[in-house]
Amino acid sequence: MTGPILVTGANGQLGQALQRLLADREVVAVDIDELDLTDRAAVVDMVGSTRPSSIINCAAMTDVDGCESRPETAWAVNAWAVRNLAEAGRRVDAYLCQVSTDYVFPGDKGEPYVEWDAVGPTSMYGASKLGGEQEAGPGAGIARTAWLCGVDGNNIVKTILRLAGEGTELSFVNDQYGSPSFADDVAARLVTMVDERLPGVFHTTNTGHASWYEFAGDVLEAGGHPRSQVRPITTDELDPPRPAPRPADSRLDGLAGRLAGLDPLPPYRESLARLVAQLPS
Cα separation of 4 and 257, whole Å? Predict the structure, then answer.
């Protein structure tokens, strides 16, 4: 199909990675300053005027604890906005690729989740993002990702390296497990989904899993710092405790991608090393 690719949440880590990857293609990139996705009329008008062939929605309220304290905003940004994009997209036959999260799962399976496992979010963030999945509608592609880091914006990799450079001793939980993901790799998978107009849910994370404590050690090592600079703690030892619950084990298994014949995303440590090499020393 002809028509540009509309990228929402364009100023975020993933949105900027997509714009670099799609530099030789026609892209309409918007963020909150250009388009309020919770304004139905504005979304319908904008999509109707630009007539994109595809929409990649990277926009979200990702402040997990903020979602807990502001649930109506979370529902508006993470679910209602997707309803607006889906409606507008149907009017012009645009394929919708919706970015979602591992937080749609409760974290009690004891092994990595596949795309067909039952969901059960324990936080408002997870619940509102699941609402967005439901609003995307049949024919849309859902890319669930986790622990996203990239060269743009703020993320945990940059924070760990900054604190390590200041000589700070770090503490990370060793009882929460997940799937690290890197923006450039996730962006490449989203483009594949768009080009092939793949419907359904795809777990979109780098290969490999870790606890937050293990991942922090990997970041330190990639940045030339000793792993001993981080010590393990339990979730119960967090001070202050987090307002919103986190899933204890939200590792994702990309079974749908394998069944579709898609290449797995690179091992996360390889992508971590590549990211650290791009950051200012």
Answer: 25
Cis peptide before 240 (omega within 30 of 0): yes
The residue assigned the tokens 């924070």 is 159
The count of C-alpha atoms lying within 13 angstroms of the C-alpha of 274, restricted to the half-sphere facing its C-beta, is 13
Rounded Cα distance between 101 and 203, Å, is: 9
- pLDDT of the residue at 206: 98
pLDDT band at 1 (very low <50, low <70, confident <90, very high): low
Q: For residue 25, what is the enclosing H or E element?
A: none
Catalytic residue among 95, 103, 113, 125: 125
Task: Note the pLDDT tens digit of each residue in 191-211.
Answer: 999 999 999 999 999 999 999
Q: Are 182 and 151 in contact (CB under 8 A)?
A: no
Task: Please check whether residue 247 is in contact with residue 177, taking contact to mean a CB–CB distance below 8 angstroms.
Answer: no
In this structure, are strands 54-57 and 95-101 parallel, antiparallel, or unpaired? parallel
Query: Which of 138, 142, 160, 271 shows the shortest CA–CA distance to 223?
Result: 160
β-strand partners of 6: 28, 55
Helix axes 156-165, 212-222, angle to 10 degrees: 60
pLDDT at 281: 74
125 noted as active-site residue = yes
Whole-angstrom Cα distance, residue 110 to residue 7? 35
